[in-house]
Predict the structure of Flavodoxin.
Amino acid sequence: MHSIKDRINNLARAMGKSTLSEDEYIDYKTLRQQYEQQANEEVRQLQSRSKKERISAIHGRSDLNPKWTFANLVEDSEDVIEAVSIAQSFIAAHEDSSWRDAGSHMMLFYGDYGRGKSHIAGAIAHQLIDQYEISVLYRQLSTLQEMRYFSYDFSAQDNIGQKFRAVHQELLEVDLLVLDEVCVNETVLKKNTQSWLGNLLRQRLVNKKNCILITNHNLAELEHAIGRYCFESIKEYDTYRVRFSGPSRRSGITAAEAEPSSTTPRYQPNQVR
């Protein structure tokens, strides 16, 4: 009785084709394993490409500064070292699905200008996107306030009202909202803005969405600035409060830069000639 290989060779000779050598012949089981391995590898490559595309899309929508990463952060003071430690714990907690489903979490960064608050918040957001595909939105409160005020202009021709409603819906739905410059240069928000912000935070709380709030005020000043209703909304979250008290990391104006560029007397108002 001829083997399958013999039959294939006889058929090949009858058709004028080359025959299989001993090394060229592959049995069905081995061939199937090879095809399965190849198919699995192709699936893994496709999944990897799809994940990279999803992560790239999330980064694109987040509006984060690409330079705000832990790799670019200089840990040169105790407050920054402590903040990074808390940030890494916050990120690691996302590995636990029960923690993510337990409720809403908020990181409250407060301290003077240039202390690294926005940088660390951005680094947290970047890492959450890369590791867990968390959707992120970075916004400055002052920008949202302006857009909200303009949305009341019913005579506007640029659909600002519709745009703000779309933005507001995104603020509610995004997994992590990074809200920067909260009450910057403001002693107290207007009452209607306090209510709007408080309602936004409470709706995100109900939907189990996380937030990072960044402010230059201390906690007492912040409570006064955003109002009690809004501040109580913050307290409802599982809150991590991080105070930044180290030196400013922003370069100042040098003595040479501070000098006038010309010796020509500068104009002074109300001069009598």
